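Notes to self after the Tuesday call (sharing in case useful).
The group wants a holo model before anyone commits to mutagenesis around the pocket. I volunteered. Ligand is fe (iii) ion. Logging inputs and output together so the record is complete.
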Amino acid sequence: MNRAALHKIGYGMYIVTSGQNGKFNGQIANAVIQATSRPASVAICISKDNYTHELISASRKFVITILTEAAPMTFIGLFGFKSGRDLDKLEDVKTKPGVTGLPIIVDHSAGFIEAELAGQLDCGSHTIFLGNVVEADVLSDAEPMTYLYYKNVKGGKAPKTAPTFDADAAAKPKAPSPSARYVCSVCGYVYDPAQGDPQNGVAPGTSFEDIPDSWTCPVCGVDKTKFEVEK
Ligand code: FE
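Result:
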């Protein structure tokens, strides 16, 4: 089997939000599809390890937020690499109430889809949730972010709980070089010397070694010692 064929499948970048009784959470999801048109339904694939899985099972409703290309890595890191069991991810995020009672994320959103659970399929590590669409709207004309854009342009990686996580590629060794890319061992953010981190004062062309020790991961905030050469 050539697993490389699986990497040719296209995905998007979404936040799936769920919860009830004042307790809500959101997480990044890339496996989101419209399943049927009449009635309009959507399907999402969520890891059983994730807090959002628990919340969807309990509340039987969820919201899909379609991220724009401009969504910063720190925003993606908040929803993709931190657990809602430890912090309130929505605390500093702009939301509006939806018809399902769920908070709808407004920041960096091209649009949203609210759904009520219609069925689910146990897939082992993940569950595919099917939801009937009860409300949806476009919030911005900005280009939606694809998974390829996140990976190639923004330098992002898949966390271990993503359906697209590639354990073989993550374990492959590679020799370091002056232009080596470094990966944050906590969140998977990749520092690419060619791109630098201009938003945080690191000019393109700066090798990882030359970044000041005061610099921290732009996604999860850990210091340089938590980075390793990309494998
Ligand atoms: Fe990080």
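Two things stood out.
The helical segments are 51-59, 73-80, 147-152, 167-171.
The two ends are 22 Å apart (CA to CA).
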